Amino acid sequence: MAKNVLIISTSLRGGSNSEILAKECEKGAREAGHNVELISLKGKEIKFCIGCLKCQETGECVLKDKDDVAEIMDKVKNADVVVYATPIYYYEMSGQMKTLLDRMNPMYSMDYKFRDIYMIATAAEDADSAFTKAYNGLLGWVECFEKAELKGLVAGGGIDDSNTASSHKDIMQKAYELGLNL
Predict the structure, then answer these.
(1) Backbone torsions φ then ψ of 61, nearest 5 degrees
(2) Tens-digit pLDDT profile for residues 87-101
């Protein structure tokens, strides 16, 4: 059965390795027959959450007309599967990804379709531990949505220079297979 898959590339860097892997995941998901949309946070305006918690009362962020988050949040809410692709900075997810997760706080009290969440991440360091904090950070967000589950990680370790992910055939294959097996 075809699923609605949303892949969010959170890197702002040109030649982003995490985005290269996101596109490989997209390729696999399309070949599997899923409806896939890949969006990049490049060029998107995402303001910081101001912590007012009005969204818990109204279901809408007070900043909704001031940036691009409402449109992204609508896509997340209506996807069956969400894949976040991020570079690892200082052993954590990108700041843009964390800011987006914070801003999707209005979804906490809404109904949502997504059930399966995945992470694709790239890091210069090759140790599995380089991805632990970022994965756990996303897990914290997912655990706020009781019908959803963080299902897995494609870890692209040892990828440091821009535009080099495609030379890591084993990791490219894992990203492709993630998409193929959603």
Answers:
(1) -80, 140
(2) 999 999 999 999 999
Nearest to 69 by CA among 151, 8, 135, 5: 8
Our count of domains for the chain comes to 1
Q: Give mean pLDDT, residues 123-139.
A: 95
Cα end-to-end distance, the chain, whole Å: 10
pLDDT for the residue numbered 109: 84
Instruction: Provide the residue range defining the domain that includes 20.
Output: 4-180
By the 10 Å C-beta count (0-12 exposed, 13-18 middle, 19+ buried), 112 is classed as middle
- According to DSSP, residue 48 is labeled P
- CATH number at 18 reads 3.40.50.360
Token pair listed for 93: 């997810």
Q: Are 23 and 44 in contact (CB under 8 A)?
A: no
**Tokens representing 173?**
């294959």
Q: Give Cβ neighbours of residue 172 (< 8 Å, ≥ 6 apart).
A: 20, 21, 24, 165, 166
CB 161 within 8 A of CB 60: no
